[in-house]
Amino acid sequence: MALTETKKKGKGTEEKDGYVHIYSGVPKEERARGGVSLAIRKKYKKFIKSWDQINLRLLQVDVDVRNHSLVVIAAYAPTDDAPAAEKDTFFFDLTTALEKIGSRKEVILIGDLNGRTGFKLNDPVVGRYGEHIVNNNGDRLIHLCEQQALRIANGWFPHKDIHKYTWTQPTRNLKSLIDYIIVRQNTQMKISDVRVMRGPECGTDHFLVVAKSYFPYKQKMQSNGLPEKNETPLSNVKYNIESLRNDSTKFLYQMRLATKLNRIGQGSPNDMYEGLKTCIHENTNKRHK
């Protein structure tokens, strides 16, 4: 989960309330402003490979997900009425960070981009279900996505306005879509929905944006392109089904499997089958082998 305008000074990590919090802000001797961070559930800490607190507006974390190398970038762009030079610097830094990643890794760019990107038909970047307005930051973001072959995922799923607009100012009757989840156009991640969640509150006029997604299992490969020999093909794994006769074991297995199955998004029959198969295999731990 990305958090922006945190106003937390310095750079570092901390563990709190079941999360690993990686943050980047202004030097401690400066007045608090800006700031960006990522909060990752502590149970996924082992999948974090590295992180780079680029500046007070950009933070990068590298993780492994089901043998997919994934780079998550949390971003907090200047407002649309900020000086052009400030916006130039932000988008230059963001472009530089993306270009350093290379083409083999998955990318998720999330955060408050302060850009309104409108909607387009038959466009690889902007979907048909965005809002109607485009501003300068939006044009800059669209151009960046075109250059980096990225897709703004928000606009690809139909929703009511309350589940589409990410920022509101009720007293002035204003609303806009400026917080995004952005992925590669050729991503292997299966995304079934991106929407605003109105429930969670943290003292802000922005709403939480959530994506329903998962990565299909990917077998580790050697440098010669062949599967690693220490990997046991899923089709050859044998499980101790007898252990499920124990009521406690059976109950825990059912609960864990149900949790994983709820995360499977919509997709083609083959994608959903692969997701089901992966959930069953991953949920069957060593005690059942």
Automatic annotation (TrEMBL):
Database matches in InterPro entries: Endo/exonu/phosph_ase_sf, Endo/exonuclease/phosphatase, Swc5/CFDP1/2
Single Gene Ontology MF annotation: catalytic activity
Top-rank taxon: Eukaryota
Residue intervals of the Endonuclease/exonuclease/phosphatase domain: 2-206
Pfam families recorded: Exo_endo_phos
Protein name (record): Craniofacial development protein 2-like
Organism, scientific name: Sitophilus oryzae (Rice weevil)
Organism lineage: Eukaryota, Metazoa, Ecdysozoa, Arthropoda, Hexapoda
